[in-house]
Amino acid sequence: MSVLAQQNPEIKITVVDINEERIAAWNDSNLNGLPIYEPGLKEVVQEARGRNLFFSTDVDKAIDEAEMIFISVNTPTKTYGQGKGLAADLKYIELSARQIARVATSDKIVIEKSTLPVRTAQAIKDILDNTGNGVKFQILSNLEFLAEGTAVQDLLNPDRVLIGGEQSEEGKEAMEALVKIYASWIPRERILTTNVWSSELSKLVANAFLAQRVSSINAISELCESTGADVDEVSRAIGMDSRIGPKFLKASVGFGGSCFQKDILNLVYIAKSYGLNEVADYWEQVIIMNDHQKNRFAQNIVSTLYNTVSGKRITFLGWAFKKDTNDTRESAAIYVADALLNERAKIVVYDPKVSEDRIYADLDELNTRTPKENRELVTVVNDPYEACADTHAIAILTEWDEFKEYDWKRIYESVIKPAFVFDGRKLLNPKNMTDIGFHYSAIGVSKRTD
Question: What pTM was computed for the model?
Answer without folding.
Answer: 0.89
